[in-house]
Structures are given as structure tokens and as C-alpha cells.
UniProtKB/TrEMBL annotation:
InterPro entries, per database record: GNAT-like, HAD-like_sf, HAD-SF_hydro_IA, HAD-SF_hydro_IIA, HAD_sf
Top-rank taxon, per record: Bacteria
Record-given protein name: HAD hydrolase-like protein
Location of the GCN5-related N-acetyltransferase-like domain: 290-331
Pfam families: GNAT_like, Hydrolase_6, Hydrolase_like
Organism, scientific name: Isoptericola hypogeus
Length: 337
């Protein structure tokens, strides 16, 4: 399988009718705004692009997420938010009948979503639940994980809202839901199913809800946001304001590669040139170029890197790897967009 950057002669906000926008690392960072996020999303909306904010966070209600975004000058309605809790409940209903019992290990958002799906929330493995729905909440304790383990070991279906190992906070990265799910999995030997990204379930639900024809995923994590886009067959824009760096994009395997890459959400308002193959193995984008020679990535010496240098480096590296040629990862520098 190969995957390359795509061209868009029109700004992405004009070429796509719906943006499926991640939250942490894209719209905001922790509780802080990300520069250009609010103004770029407003301009995209003004141009006719609809927005649905898609988050692996299962602990909060959609209305609470919408309120936070609105407070950051990104006016949002509750029905413009799709959470992993909602996706988790939808996944549960693929195998469980209404009235089935579910042990919820997580926050109020997951409880609400499971109940809204017609399922009965229980709090103990002694209640013989049909499934365990596990999502992140900061107050999760050992006793909660133990209860989940008892239920899963007893035959309950284990469904995780997401498997993110880390969670971005204002102070850095903390253990995410995947790390806590891993504790239950380690105790039981059972691998859970997951509703959150990189599963495309949330994207498909959001596209269906919006009735969109030309959706675009916008995310900062290659292993969740962009992998989910690839899995769902939806074009993906990688913005460099969160977890995955430009260097990560250059080194990404096909299943994690974005279709477009931009420094921040202003990329929605821009056309995206595609790198082209030139003489002597160079891949050129705008006035920047990159190539792989004897396994080492080389960049031209045209000054500061810039986003076109990132695009050219992605094209050169991906072409080499997909063609069976070696790439020394140590030769790939930290790239500044």
C-alpha cells in the first residue's frame, strides 16, 4: 500500500463541505486557545464549510465541549460535537439489545451516551453485565479498573471509548485511556474493541449526521486522527500544532500518512500544491526541494524550512520507502513549518 500527498487547487474549505475537527492540539491546547484556530474556523464556516468537532474524550457531554469551544471564540452547538462516548454506545448497540446491562467505567459523558442508546448502566461486576464500556475520567481509581477486570474475566464484552496511550494537558502528556484500558487487558488477557479513533466509527457517524458529501478530517495525531481518516477512506489534513510533528509525518508508514499537511488551521483557507519529481532525484514543492541519496534525506539550502519543505521531504521519503529503498531515520531533521 502506498499513500502520497494530494493536491488541492482550491482552498480546502472550498473543496470540502464538512471538516471533522479534532480538539486537543487542533482547536485548543489543554484549556488554552491555539493561535489562528478561532479565526480560521470562522473563515471556513463563512465560506460554507460545516464543522463537527470529533473527540476521543468520552468523559464530557457534547454540550460541555460546545460550551468550552464557544468560550474560546469558536461558537459551537452541542449537535456539532461527536464524542467517543457516543461512538462507544453506537458500537455497543451493534451486539446488544435494548435493556442489556453495561458496566460503565468512565465519566458522565459515557454514562449519558450508554443510557441514551437504551442500555442499562450498572456499577458492579456482581450485576452480571453484558459488556464493560471503559472511558477516561480523571477520577478513575484502582477499584474501578478492578471492577472492570472482574466483569471482563466473567465474560463481559470489553469496549473502550478509545485507546490513546497519552493525553495532552497544559503541563505535558499524561496517561490516557489506552494506558488504563491496558491495565484491564493485562489483568484479563482480553483485547478490547475500540470505538474511538483510529477506528473510523466516529467519522462515519458524523458524516451521516451531517449528510456531507466531501468530508475532510483535521487532526494533529497521525496514529489516531489520520489513521482513522485512512481507515475510513476520508482525506486527512495534518496540522502541526499538537502531538505529531512534521518529522513524524516524513517518517510515517502508509497507514498513518496525511493527504495534506499544514502549519495550523490556516491551512483550511489555502490551496495545497503537490510535490513533483524533478531531476537528480529531487522532489520539489514551491521553491523547496528534498531527495534521498544513499539512504539519507537531503534538503535544499533555501533558508528556513517552511511548509513546502515539509511537503517535499514527505514526498521524497515516502517515495524512497515505498520503492524499497532504505531511509536513515537519523538523517531526517526536526522540520519547522
Amino acid at each position: 500500500m502506498t499513500a502520497t500527498l494530494q493536491a488541492s487547487d482550491a482552498p480546502l474549505a472550498a473543496a470540502h463541505d464538512l471538516a471533522l475537527v479534532d480538539l486537543d492540539g487542533v482547536a485548543y491546547r489543554g484549556h488554552l486557545p491555539i493561535p489562528h484556530a478561532a479565526s480560521s474556523l470562522a473563515a471556513a464556516r463563512d465560506g460554507g464549510m460545516r464543522l463537527v468537532f470529533v473527540t476521543n474524550n468520552a468523559s464530557r457531554e457534547p454540550g460541555e465541549v460546545a460550551e468550552q469551544l464557544t468560550g474560546l471564540d469558536i461558537p459551537t452547538r452541542a449537535d456539532e460535537v461527536m464524542t467517543a462516548a457516543q461512538a462507544c454506545a453506537a458500537l455497543l448497540r451493534t451486539r446488544l439489545d435494548p435493556g442489556s446491562r453495561v458496566l460503565v467505567v468512565g465519566g458522565v459523558g459515557l454514562v449519558t451516551a450508554v443510557e441514551a442508546a437504551g442500555l442499562v448502566v450498572v456499577r458492579s461486576a456482581d450485576d452480571k453485565p453484558d459488556a464493560v464500556a471503559q472511558g477516561f475520567t480523571p477520577g478513575l481509581a484502582w477499584s474501578d479498573l478492578a471492577e472492570a477486570a472482574y466483569a471482563v474475566a466473567g465474560g463481559a464484552w470489553h469496549v473502550a471509548s478509545n485507546l490513546d496511550l497519552s493525553l495532552p494537558t497544559a503541563r505535558g502528556f499524561a496517561p490516557g485511556n489506552g494506558a488504563l484500558v491496558g491495565a484491564v487487558s493485562a489483568a484479563t488477557g482480553v483485547r478490547p474493541d475500540s470505538a474511538g479513533k483510529p477506528s473510523p466509527t466516529m467519522y462515519r457517524l458524523a458524516v451521516e449526521r451531517a449528510g456531507a458529501a466531501r468530508p475532510l478530517v483535521v487532526g494533529d495525531r497521525l496514529d489516531t486522527d489520520l489513521a482513522g481518516a485512512r481507515a475510513g477512506g476520508i482525506p486527512g489534513l495534518h496540522v502541526l500544532t499538537g502531538v505529531s510533528s512534521a518529522r513524524d509525518a516524513v517518517l510515517a508508514p502508509p497507514g498513518l500518512r496525511p493527504d495534506f499537511v499544514g502549519a495550523d488551521l490556516r491551512a483550511l483557507l489555502e490551496a495545497h500544491p503537490v510535490p513533483v519529481s524533478a531531476a537528480d532525484g529531487w522532489w520539489e514543492c514551491g521553491r523547496r526541494g528534498a531527495r534521498v541519496v544513499e539512504g539519507r534525506l537531503e534538503l535544499d539550502r533555501g533558508g528556513p524550512h517552511g511548509i513546502d519543505a515539509v511537503r517535499a521531504a514527505c514526498a521524497a521519503a515516502w517515495d524512497a520507502v515505498d520503492g524499497g529503498r532504505p531511509l536513515d531515520v537519523e538523517s531526517v531533521p526536526t522540520l519547522e513549518a
